[in-house]
Amino acid sequence: MSEMMRNPPIFYTAAQVRFNPVLDMEDSISHVQKVWRQRFPDFSHQPLSQIQMQVPSAGEAPSVKVNSIARWHFKNIDQTSALILANDSLIFHTTQYSTSVDFIDTLVDALKVVDEVVSLSYVEAVGFRTLDAVIPTAGKGVDFYLRSGLLGLSASLDGILKHSVYEMVMLHSHAQLASRCIMLNGKLGVPADLYPIMLKFKDEVNMIDGPHAVLDNDATQLERFAFNIEDVAKRLRMVKSLISDAFYQSVTSEALLEWNNSDHVHAD
Q1: Is it the case that residue 266 has pLDDT exceeding 50?
Q2: CA atoms within 13 A on the CB side of 260
Q3: Distance separating alpha carbons of residues 181 and 168, to the nearest angstrom
Q4: Per-residue pLDDT averaged across 152-178, rounded?
Q5: What DSSP string runs through 229-249?
Q6: Where along the chain do its domains lie?
Q7: Are 90 and 112 in contact (CB under 8 A)?
Q8: Out of 78, 170, 174, 238, which residue is the most buried by the measure of CB atoms under 10 Å away?
């Protein structure tokens, strides 16, 4: 978000840098932890299971193979921010987003450490994703906050809405943007591909139990380039600008005024 916002709806942010596979990454974890543990001391090894289905020729039964992908988590003491390192990627995610400058600086600084230890050769992709919780205040509906294009038939049909899903994918010359809006009546709607998010949410997010919407904006640049830390930071800022634009095109001016009516200052 490019403007000062006092009460931002953003509740989860993640960014990923995918680089050349480093087969001996596990041997380097202790060196990485020495630097990261001052800010992210909560360390754990959490392998990810990946299911692969192989379809053979006609007449033969398909086979299923489960691969274990090594991943190492480094959380802060409050368990609100963390780095996730794998042999071919680094993710930084948080439920306490402050500004894009601080967020990108944290990821870039962490990536510098990885490069110093294992000497990265190239980057395959950079991505940025944000989730915003649109929680109506008393006397208002979700339609007060969202532009009409996201409301679909819910704005014109009778009845009580259970859920509504809108998705748009746009290709740019340099990246792809996926913009989604999920309207629900109940507990917080966390996208299935992110579940479970191993971080603590803010109290107001955990307390959601009624009509609300989740804006899920995700931008990725798939392009191999020689590793250069300044280039990585530049591309992260670029994909972040795409999802910021998508957010501002999704919400009303009245919503922005309400989210600015708070003592908590948020700057992008």
Answers
A1: no
A2: 11
A3: 9
A4: 89
A5: HHHHHHHHHHHHHHHHHHHHH
A6: 10-259
A7: no
A8: 238
